[in-house]
Amino acid sequence: MQEPEEKKIALELLETEQAYVNRLHLLDQVFYTELMKEAKTGKTVPEEVVKMIFSNISSIYQFHAEFFLPELQKRMEDWHHNPRIGDVIQKLAPFLKMYGEYVKNFDKAVELITAWSEKSPPFQELIADIQKRKVCANLTLQHHMLEPVQRIPRYELLLKDYVRKLPPQSPDRGDAEKALEMIFMVAKHSNAAIAEMERLQNLWVVYQRLGLEDDIVDPSNELIKEGPIQKISTRNNSTSEKYLFLFNNMLLYCVPKVIQVGAEFQVHLRMDVGGMKVRELKDAEFPHTFLVSGKQRTLELQARSEEEMNDWIQ
């Protein structure tokens, strides 16, 4: 007799979970443990670095090895009497939020492995040693570390498939649909973690270009728009090249630095967005100009085109 489709998918989930737990065992119990042991002797790298590379892999490993895999195994052994996995996956889903931490840290971890492999030959040798073992299947540490990053999307795909193949009257339908919804939310959660990390990195680059003025550096700021602008001087009817950074809470009016050491710009004026007014100026002599007036002062600015002016005003 042909196995029902949904059972095949549930078995695939179990088999891939078994392989995944082996991979996590390799990361946590072999790589992490052995690198940590060497770090403690002070011969390879600081212990802190090893901890930073592996993030919270130990929690992830224990959760899958001691809880999720055994639960799935029990379900599949009992499939004949009780064909369902939805309830187990609902128990799994909230814990997958732990992945946010790991995923967020992944790029930094790979950079650390590269940097310290160059700095510390013993560290590099130890990794190369472990990579030669049969259990590594000729793959690098970085390759194995990517697996947890890809695991949640894999659950999502398998479960979507499972729900699609379930007969309408299956006892697992309600649970499986709810489980899929939960996994979907968690997948979004780790994507949000990545997006947040990228936002902070981009923000940091902007702060460096501004010379890291401490009253400007704030992780909650959001950069909305930046770009060159001409400042109109009404006194002598001329313009000079300036540069604007618009954040959610402030406008930075900057001067490009001629000699770029560290910072690219010097902040000349900082205007609060609260209470700021912006309007177009119809000036025959200077097209595409607009007026920005805030608590601090008023600026007459000229954009390079109508479109650019409208962008800034927007």
Provide the fold topology.
Blueprint: H1 5-40, H2 47-54, H3 57-77, H4 86-92, H5 99-119, H6 121-131, H7 141-165, H8 173-209, E1 223-233, E2 238-247, E3 250-256, E4 265-272, E5 277-281, E6 289-293, E7 298-302, H9 306-313
Helix content estimate: 55-70%
* Tally of distinct domains: 2
Could you say which structural class the secondary elements and strand pairing correspond to?
A: alpha+beta
Elements, N to C (H/E): HHHHHHHHEEEEEEEH
Bin the strand percentage.
15-25%
Question: What is the count of β-strands?
Answer: 7
Rg result = 28 Å
Shape, per Cα inertia axes: elongated
CATH class of the largest domain, anyone? Mainly Alpha
Give the termini distance in whole angstroms: 66 Å
Protein name: FGD2 protein
Domain PH: 222-314
Domain DH: 5-193
Organism: Quiscalus mexicanus (Great-tailed grackle)
How would you portray this structure in words?
With 314 residues, the chain is of the alpha+beta class. It folds into two domains: 5-189, Dbl Homology Domain, Chain A; 223-313, PH-domain like (Roll). It contains nine helices and seven strands, in the order H-H-H-H-H-H-H-H-E-E-E-E-E-E-E-H. Strands 4-3-2-1-7-6-5 form a seven-stranded antiparallel β-sheet, with helices on one face. A hairpin with a 4-residue loop joins strand 6 and strand 7 (298-302). Helix 5 crosses helix 6 (121-131) and helix 7 (141-165) packs antiparallel against helix 8 (173-209). The longest helix has 37 residues, at 173-209. The model has no long low-confidence stretch (mean pLDDT 88). One of its GO terms (biological process) is filopodium assembly. This is FGD2 protein. Its main location: cytoplasm. It is found in: Cytoplasm, Cytoskeleton.
